[in-house]
Specification:
Elements (H helix, E strand, L loop, with lengths): L3 H15 L12 H16 L2 H4 L8 E5 L3 E3 L6 H13 L1 H10 L1 E4 L5 H6 L14 E14 L9 E14 L5 E14 L5
């Protein structure tokens, strides 16, 4: 059996060789980014002229949500794009807004099984006649740089722009839209 100090020295040597002291960083979109933008989107929508006059007793509005149009550098599979939309529909701020303003967010029934197969277990409801359509477009602009004395690129910044819009199905008029921006920064060599 190897003595404890020798084992500790061996572990430290292995960590030094494989670089376990550095934590990998990423500029990829995260679930928390969507939670943040959904909260901001609900605030913006609640304060909009589109919903200003509405109450819980207003005639219902049925908003069908389209899948995200992903124009970022991140690869987001189709099922995950629909999952993001389902998270919008099921978010607590929007569920509260739905009750206060008598609006319902829905996903077309054709997408329900795909969401179930992808692991979504929230309420999807039944889709009545659509009065409005919500769309979302995600864009990104990556930037790279290096610290002044470094020879290699070791900083990456991704700027994200997420835009949401609600259109009336009959008039095709934009009833509400807003955008949200943020950036993600990661540093370290590519091999890290």
């Amino acid at each position: 059996m190897t003595p404890a100090p020798a084992r500790a020295a061996a572990v430290m040597l292995v960590c030094a060789l494989v670089g376990c002291a550095t934590v990998p960083q990423s500029t990829r979109l995260r679930a928390s980014d969507f939670d943040f933008t959904i909260e901001k989107m609900a605030e913006s929508l609640a304060a909009s002229a589109f919903l200003a006059e509405r109450t819980a007793d207003s005639p219902p509005i049925y908003i069908t949500i389209n899948k995200v149009e992903n124009l970022t550098s991140d690869i987001i599979p189709v099922a995950e794009q629909w999952m993001l939309v389902a998270r919008v529909q099921g978010a607590l701020p929007l569920r509260a807004l739905s009750k206060q303003k008598n609006i319902r967010f829905q996903i077309t029934p054709e997408q329900h099984q795909m969401l179930r197969d992808a692991g979504f277990d929230g309420d999807l409801g039944q889709a009545p006649a659509t009065t409005h359509v919500m769309s979302a477009q995600f864009l990104s602009a990556p930037r790279t740089a290096s610290h002044k004395k470094e020879k290699y690129v070791n900083i990456r910044q991704d700027y994200y722009y997420l835009e949401y819009a609600i259109n009336d199905v009959n008039t095709r008029q934009i009833e509400w839209n807003d955008s949200f921006e943020f950036k993600r920064v990661a540093s370290g060599l590519t091999i890290d």
